[in-house]
Amino acid sequence: MKIAVLSGKGGTGKTFTSVNLAAAANRATYIDCDVEEPNGRLFFKPEGVEAQSISTLIPTFNAGKCNGCRKCVDFCRFNALVYVKDKPMVFPEVCHSCGGCALVCPSGAVTEIKKVVGSVESGVSGNVRIITGVMNLGEASGIPIIKAALKKSGIAEELTVIDCPPGSACPVMESVQSADYCLLVAEPTAFGLHNFEMVHELTALLGKPCGVIINKADGEYLPLDKFLADHKIPVLCRIPYSERLAQLGADAEIAVKCDADMAALFHTLLADIRKEAAG
Amino acid sequence: MESAVCVSFGRAPFFLLYDTESKTENFVPNTAADAQGGAGLKAAQLVVDMGADTLLTVRCGQNAADVLVAAGIKVYKTAAPTVAENLRDFAEGKLSVMTQFHAGFHGRQ
User: Fold this and answer.
1) Would the CB atoms of B45 and A77 count as touching at under 8 Å?
2) How far is the alpha carbon of A141 from chain B, nearest alpha carbon, in Å?
3) Is A145 exposed, middle or buried (0-12, 13-18, 19+ CB in 10 A)?
4) Helix or strand or coil: residue B18?
5) What is the pLDDT of residues A213-263, one digit of tens each?
6) Residue A8, CB half-sphere, CA atoms under 13 Å: how many?
7) CATH class name, domain A63-108
8) What is the mean pLDDT of residues A171-176?
9) CA–CA separation, B42 vs B61, rounded Å?
10) Looking at residue B36, what is its pLDDT?
């Protein structure tokens, strides 16, 4: 079973939730798809880490073979190519590596070359396999790294927890696509709710069953409760803000390993998700 | 000619192609204005293809600037609101060459 953990707004507790969920299971795979800032490894401290380099393809142009027909420029829907002074120019950070320019070129002037954009690290922490997508600094798109990281998901019978990037754009869609269940981490603030509504719309669009964990749940925030009730989104648990949890986080400790209450909470949460996903 | 110069280069609805010798004007629709992404690049391509040698604009992104530089097009920063005022200022040598290009807005405002 694959559970994607997402929130919209950053800092609501996606990594906290994902790490503890994976650690609460007997055997699990934890995949960090937040490739711009993969933090799960700070808690798991995986051993035996092996890195696999991830590349995308970027076109290069043989000016001698180019006949100036501009079919490549016209084809590129991302506008990554321009034709200036009788030669094509490519803007690698705009290119989506679709390979279309090489296909439409009638004179074989386009060659695709590999460009390293990041890596996927695989390691082990106790009973949890730790997969970490890491994007190189300055790169624009983490999608190829997320795709490669997700290929390392565990078998269907075992639990795979996907720690998604913040937001609700392409990297989140990519991370969520293969999930059986979406666990939405909500924060009872106006900003949190605003972005929560966006990720909920995304999961609804993708037809994913989802449930909510309300983190830092101090007091009531009625607009969030109303939104959840109106959209019939089940609230699986509420975790009140506590200084102890903040301290454990700052010390890079995994709460379920140091706190019996948290261990009980996450075991129950996992069981509830299994029930929800089955029903 | 009395309309304001659009604050966006890539997503400006029209470009005015103005011939300073014959004093003729020609408004060209910007086909890049509704591009999902890479509007600046596509707009720069259009300006290159129009045969312009100078661009007057409020602001311009780095990618578009790279294309314009490669094509040998000079970029000047507009100072006054309207098209006519900027053409006059340019003719009098009052506009300065643009040296600062933004990193692109890419969907943000």
Assistant:
1) no
2) 13
3) buried
4) strand
5) 999 998 889 999 999 999 999 999 999 999 999 999 999 999 999 999 999
6) 21
7) alpha beta
8) 92
9) 12
10) 85
**Res. A7: pLDDT tops 70:** yes
Q: Cβ–Cβ of B38/A94 closer than 8 Å?
A: yes
- A199-212 pLDDT, tens digit per residue, is 999 999 999 999 99
Q: How many Cβ pairs within 8 Å bridge chains A and B?
A: 42
B32's CB contacts (< 8 A; 6+ apart) are A79, B10, B11, B38, B39, B40, B41, B42, B43, B45, B46
The fraction of chain A above a pLDDT of 90, given in percent, is: 88
Q: In which residue ranges of chain A is CATH 3.40.50.300 found?
A: 2-54+118-278
Query: What's domain A2-54+118-278's superfamily in CATH?
Result: P-loop containing nucleotide triphosphate hydrolases (3.40.50.300)
Interface predicted TM-score of the whole assembly (ipTM), two decimals: 0.86
**Is B50 inside a domain boundary?**
yes
Q: Is residue B109 very low, low, confident or very high in pLDDT (cuts 50, 70, 90)?
A: very low
User: Which residues 33-92 of A have a C-beta within 8 angstroms of B?
Assistant: 73, 76-80, 82-85, 89, 91
pTM of the model: 0.79
> Scanning the structure block, which residue is given the tokens 């103005």?
B18
Look at the block and give the residue holding tokens 């998700």. Answer: A273
Indicate whether B71 belongs to any domain.
yes
Pick from A76, A82, A94: CB nearest B44: A82
Q: Which of A197, A218, A162 is nearest to A29 (CA)?
A: A162
Say which of B35, B36, B48 has its CB closest to residue A84: B48
Give span(s): CATH 3.30.70.20, chain A: 63-108
**Under 8 Å between Cβ of A129 and A122:** yes
State the amino acid at position A107 in one-letter form.
S
On chain A, the residues whose CB falls within 8 A of the CB of B67 are 82, 84, 89
> What residue type is A83 in one-letter code?
Y
Average model confidence (pLDDT) across chain B: 91
Q: Is residue B62 part of a domain?
A: yes
Number of structural domains in chain B: 1
Please tell me what DSSP assigns to residue A148: H
